[in-house]
Amino acid sequence: MDTATKQSPGPAGTPSAAALRNLVMATIGFGLTFWAWNLIAPMSGVYKERLGLSSLEQSMLVAVPVLVGSLGRIPVGALTDKHGARLMFPLISALTIVPVLLLIPAKNSYGAMLAVGFLLGLGGTTFAIGIPLVNSWFPPAGRGFALGVFGMGMGGVALSGYFTPRIAEHGDNLPFLVVAAALMVYAALAAVLISDRPDRPVPTDSLAHRLGAAGRLRVTWELSALYAIGFGGIVAFGVYLPTYLKTWYDLSPTDAGTKAAGFALVTVIFRPIGGRLSDRIHPALVTAAALGLAALTAIVQAFDPELAPGGTIALLCMAAGLGTASGSIFALVSQVTPQAKVGSVTGIVGAMGGLGGFVPPLVMGAIYSAKGSYSIGFMLLSDLALAGCVYAYGRMRGLQRE
């Protein structure tokens, strides 16, 4: 029996052992690199006090890695189509070690922190490697759930929010050393255990041509807009929620990080739920319902309820809606995108999702500095989520593969 036969899906379209191995490795790698990507946010309150930063400067420090990691997904996704995840996953994981360690000498300079934050964005690009890898290994009937499981790797944000400030209590530099060591071990294992599907289509045209072809698909930009709302909301709250809770509800950095980690954990749990629902119902309907829930709870939070229980319930329901939408949107990507273009389309859609997370922290910081309130920011989120809900239901229910 040849390798391709051994690695093909089993009876009734069940995933092979190779598919499961690649899913596990991709999810772990996604989680570790996301932890690295989000190392600055849980400590942003400390940096604000140490460096004497304004709210806007603090927001910029948190947002720079998000911007770079988002835009970097576009070339990384196209390179994954060409060279495969077997090369790209260990390579990007190993390269991310450099900015993680550079955070140690940079921590006493705002300019240096911004520069290292720019490089740290590299950790946010692995999303565009894992999606085409998982998409190629799993049969269509279970692809939505598999992509949702991979998406649980964004729980690296929750890990960072919970563990980074606690590890830092035992030494300022310890979180960076721990994450760097974990990335080093993972890169070595990934080089051995990750494999590309033998029959995956490999494009022969140039990077620019492939990105242009993906950009000419109308669905690329429709999915990008929805993902900018769904995943962008997750990223925005993942990086800014500790600041919001500390500023508005006067929590300690550790308590704010813990509650922000809880928010991120809920989004992680509901992402595969969104994928599983999309294997059974049209993913556009799942997306519409999820964004509708996010819009409603954002309105509730705009009225500044007490944190216990009203604010906590609203934020956790918002997390459930945004997590479900993130899972269902990429189930839709797998349904309507040609296999050879999944990496390129994923790069663009993932970039727009990340950019959706770049803008809100800056807006929230600017609004709070000007008005002393976050209500306007939550109302803007509710408007965007409602628009996405209407568009997903009205336009995207009938989409087919182009």
Pattern of helices and strands: HHHHHHHHHHHHHHHHH
| C-alpha termini separation | 35 Å
Proportion of helical residues? over 70%
Q: How much is the average pLDDT?
A: 84
Strand tally: 0
Radius of gyration: 20 Å
What characterizes the major β-sheet? none
Which ranges are low-confidence, i.e. pLDDT below 50, for 5 or more consecutive residues? Answer: 1-12
Number of helical segments? 17
Globular, elongated, flat, extended or rod-shaped: what is the shape? globular
**β-sheet strand percentage:** under 5%
Question: Helix/strand-derived class?
Answer: mainly alpha
Descriptive labels:
402 residues, mainly alpha, 17 helices, globular
Task: Provide a concise account of the structure shown.
The chain is mainly α and 402 residues long. It has helices at 3-6, 17-37, 44-51, 55-83, 85-106, 110-120, 127-137, 140-151, 156-168, 174-193, 207-215, 218-248, 253-280, 283-302, 307-336, 342-371, 375-395.
